[in-house]
Design a protein that fits this description.
Layout lengths: L3 H10 L4 E6 H12 L3 H4 L10 H12 L11 E4 L1 H21 L3 E4 L3 H17 L12 E6 L2 E10 L2 E6 L10 E2 L5 H12 L7 E5 H9 L4 E5 L4 H8 L5 E4 L10 H10 L5
Parallel strand pairs: 3-6, 3-8, 8-9, 9-10
Antiparallel strand pairs: 1-2, 4-5, 5-6, 6-7
Helix pairs in contact: 4-9, 5-10, 6-10, 7-8
């Protein structure tokens, strides 16, 4: 999909941008937690300065197009589709530059049921362009805090994309993949790569803790983020995350296919 008009229409129709399913109440709640430096929403980022609620809200208005009116407290949230497209262009350009230099890449997602196919297509294209797609710490067990207490998850890879699984789940599909915001998986993967003397990634692509955790460690990271994930946008504002694409990160997996094609075309990685 090269036509930005068609892409814009798709973003709105699929509710990836425009009026989205994420609620204003949820986003504001996350902004308050971020302002209080709650580790559940920092996603591995250690902000360099204080980010009071008003500043977080203004930043999210700038980056996503959400309302900056603090009195607007309910209803569905909104993402400006033009901001999404502009960020997709920059995201694709960074991928294209990485492919041109054939840098090692690491891809990981906390949304395996929604975004695995999107990232897997990027991994395939980058591999075909000569970029080593890294899979460090395969099978490592990671203790992750959840709403139900600490749970042990297993780091796996599907088509070059890292995800966390329930213990005891194997296979080549996304089955058993679990949603997570934790930065522990990317820290585990990067530590394993360093310990075994393998290459470290020159670029990390993903969402949630994969992006913030890598960026906090000084590794270039780009990714996708919803309006209730302010950490990635703060990381970008502070210079530790290279690019963030604002969109709803929890719609049907098939809805991301036009974005996948757009990014690969823009990055000159389509086959």
């Amino acid at each position: 999909m090269r036509d930005t008009g068609a892409l814009r229409a798709h973003l709105i129709e699929a509710r990836l941008a425009g009026t989205i399913a994420t609620t204003r109440e949820k986003s504001l709640g996350r902004y308050r937690l971020f302002a209080a430096r709650d580790p559940r929403v920092l996603l591995g980022l250690d902000p360099e300065r204080d980010w009071p609620l008003g500043e977080v809200l203004r930043l999210m208005g700038q980056k996503c197009g959400v309302s900056v009116d603090p009195a607007h407290t309910s209803g569905p949230d909104v993402i400006d589709p033009d901001r999404t497209i502009a960020a997709l262009d920059r995201f694709a350009d960074r991928m294209g530059e990485a492919a041109g230099r054939r840098v090692p890449v690491l891809l990981g997602t906390g949304h395996p049921h929604r975004l695995l196919e999107f990232y897997a297509a990027l991994a395939d294209a980058l591999s075909s362009a000569g970029c080593p797609v890294l899979t460090p710490a395969y099978g490592a067990r990671v203790d992750i805090a959840t709403r139900f207490g600490v749970r042990t998850r297993v780091l796996g890879y599907v088509r070059g994309v890292a995800l966390m699984r329930e213990t005891g789940v194997r296979g080549a599909s996304g089955a058993g993949g679990v949603h997570t915001h934790s930065p522990l998986p990317v820290r585990t993967a990067l530590a394993a790569a360093a310990d075994f003397g393998g290459p470290l990634p020159g670029l990390v692509i993903g969402d949630h803790g994969w992006v913030c955790g890598a960026g906090q460690l000084g590794i270039e990271a780009i990714g996708l983020a919803d309006t209730d994930d302010p950490a990635l946008f703060v990381g970008q504002a502070e210079g530790r995350v290279s690019e963030v694409v604002p969109l709803d990160d929890a719609v049907r997996a098939a809805s991301y296919r036009p974005l996948m094609r757009y990014v690969l075309n823009r990055a000159h990685l389509s086959r």
